[in-house]
Amino acid sequence: MLLAINCNNTNIKFGVVDGDRIVGEWRQHTSAMRTADEHAVWLIELMRMEGIDPKSVTDAIIGSVVPQANFNLRRLCTRYFNIEPLFIGEPNVVHGIKVKGVGAGADRICNTVGASLMFPRTPVVVVDFGTATNFDVVDEEGSYCGGAIAPGPNLSIEALVAAAALLPRIVVEKPEKVIGTTTVACMHTGVFWGYVGLIEGIVTRIKAEFGKPMKVVSTGGLAPVFDGYISVIDQVATDITARGLIEIWKRSKKAA
What we know:
Radius of gyration: 19 Å
Shape: globular
Helix content: 25-40%
Largest sheet: 5 strands, mixed
Strand order of the largest sheet: 3-2-1-4-5
Structural class: alpha/beta
Order of helices and strands: EEEHEHEHEEEHHEHEH
Number of helices: 7
CATH superfamily of the largest domain: ATPase, nucleotide binding domain
């Protein structure tokens, strides 16, 4: 089985894959200070709780946008699973896509591959709700064409709380009304509907500039919260990054 690790700025997602089926998936807050030993104690116990034998893991692939965490993630694989993992971005990893421009991180490459699997020969915009909200543009050939980056909803909340002494920390959720009558209600309106407007505005401009019909798919931890409220999004696919990561592993193994 395959251990697929997706390390983002907020969370690290660990998945165990049997063929095309994700048989176990767990999430951990990202910390560059967490050692390989700490990763192992947590992950191996969770695997056993799900009835997954750690010895059944024979391969590993890691997509990371947090370089400081990479050493311990690699050490987790080599010491506790006796595997040398593939890392997105290293020369022996074959993602099979054309990257137009520079600066595409592992998450955007995985999203591009995942989107081209979901919508073959179709231009796609992937809206990824993470620490940042990423907009990844994929053309009909499956190439990464660029996109946009905006602060994520939770990052915006943290900025408000840090800069305004009387504003409390809130969770992202749809408010009952647009016109808030309390401080918290006003913040919910500003964050939720503000991001609806931001995403609709950017996606509309991307589609106009691209000049062809496009599918729009959302992913990331907050994608379900906004499901049904953003008119330009056609589908929510919270596993698109993981599916891209798994496909890149398959392509790399085939090319080896």
